TrEMBL record:
InterPro entries: AmpC-like (IPR050491), Beta-lactam-related (IPR001466), Beta-lactam/transpept-like (IPR012338). The keyword Nucleotidyltransferase does not apply. Residues 44-351 form the Beta-lactamase-related domain. SUPFAM superfamilies: beta-lactamase/transpeptidase-like. One of its GO terms (molecular function) is hydrolase activity. Pfam families: Beta-lactamase. This is Serine hydrolase. Residues 1-22 form the signal peptide. Keywords: Hydrolase, Signal.
Length: 372
């Protein structure tokens, strides 16, 4: 189902670019009505924010609805939210920067940096372990075979029910993986696993001698001026968040605590900051060499190094980025390569009737085709 969603997102974005957009587009009442409709078909959500832009400016941005189901505060479009697995792209950038600096190679075995016994236990599959075969690249590509500690949301449910305000170390998350499951395959097969990025966070912390939040801050957030982005946000940020829901459960506080310092899915950010980040990373500005970006965008079964490929088209090049699904939020970061255009969407509901934030882009394309 998710693969179909990703493909549709890409197709919609490609159509938008093929037909172009004008400076009049942001002022269109018809476009605003599209966002209204997205909320109407997902009545459990209270708000949606969407933006399209390039490295120079935002071409279009719109927010519709309320900060929460209480309907007591209208959205401004500046609200923060947990961008979930889009965090993986931030982590992959840090790893590739370290490779450019000669501090590691993604071909290195993971046991060069992490405890061999730990990796042996994590890689145990049908009586055999593969601790000496798993590489950093396999963690980045989700081809390590290591079990996903989130266990198809069961870990979330257990934490919400029993420890809603607990924070977790990287070691805590790995311990959960060891406790609730075992390796899903030998190294080499694609199995999406959040545990991979917990281990990448541990590698980064060992090499940089600082916590993962500080590493991302130093390498990405400060250089790009992402003033509303953090992996370790202050508690006062909760008052500025778009409230996140699963049906009518308010998961904002839980998601905030559960995801602190979580390299697999914890980045707190805004639509504006994600536009800046998307344009920076996919234009290559965060790397010393264009070859590093090409390495990042070398895809296997639709996944590269912390990046998804939604589509590839002769006219517009690759459509790449990442999706984010977490308790309370559904968001997308998509970058269309040749025109250098970024699309960001978020809605504060993790159980959608129309499970596709690209809904906005679909309707925009229809209007453009009609000659708006």
């Amino acid at each position: 189902m998710k693969n179909k969603i990703y493909s549709l997102l890409a197709a919609c974005t490609l159509l938008l670019l093929n037909f172009g957009y004008s400076q009049e587009l942001p002022d269109s009442e018809s476009l605003k009505a599209i966002a209204d409709e997205y909320l109407e078909v997902n009545p459990e959500a209270s708000g949606v924010i969407a933006a399209i832009g390039n490295s120079g400016s935002k071409a279009w941005k719109y927010s519709k609805g309320y900060k929460g189901l209480g309907r007591d505060s209208f959205l401004t479009g500046k609200e923060a939210f947990i961008a979930a697995s889009i965090t993986k792209t931030f982590v992959a950038v840090c790893i590739l920067q370290l490779e450019e600096e000669g501090k590691l190679a993604i071909s290195d075995k993971v046991t060069r940096y992490l405890d061999e016994e730990l990796i042996r236990r994590l890689s145990l599959y049908k009586g055999s372990s593969y601790e000496n075969k798993i590489t950093i690249a396999q963690l980045l590509r989700h081809t390590s075979g290591i079990f996903d500690y989130l266990n198809e949301t069961q870990t979330h449910l257990e934490a919400y029910k029993n420890h809603p305000q607990r924070t977790y170390t990287l070691e805590d998350r790995v311990a959960i993986a060891l406790d609730v499951g075992s390796a899903t395959s030998r190294p080499g097969e694609y199995h999406y696993s959040n545990t991979n990025y917990i281990l990448l966070g541990m590698i980064l912390e060992k090499l940089e001698s600082k916590d993962i939040g500080s590493i991302i801050n130093q390498r990405i957030i400060v250089p790009l001026g992402l003033n509303n982005t953090s992996l370790n946000p202050e508690e006062k940020m909760m008052s500025k968040m778009l409230k996140g829901y699963y049906t009518d459960w308010d998961l904002t506080s839980f998601t905030y605590y559960f995801n602190r310092q979580n390299p697999a899915g914890g980045i707190l950010t805004t639509v504006d900051d994600l536009l800046i980040f998307g344009n920076a990373v996919f234009s290559g500005r965060l790397f010393r060499s264009p070859l590093t970006l090409e390495k990042m965008l070398n895809f296997h079964k639709g996944y590269g190094l912390g990046v998804m490929q939604f589509e590839k088209n002769r006219k517009t090049g690759r459509v790449v980025g990442h999706s984010g699904f977490d308790p309370g939020y559904t968001c997308y970061l998509a970058y269309v390569e040749k025109p250098g255009l970024t699309v960001v969407t978020v809605i504060n509901q993790s159980e959608l009737r129309v499970n596709m934030p690209a809904f906005l882009v679909v309707k925009m394309v229809h209007l453009i085709k009609e000659g708006l």
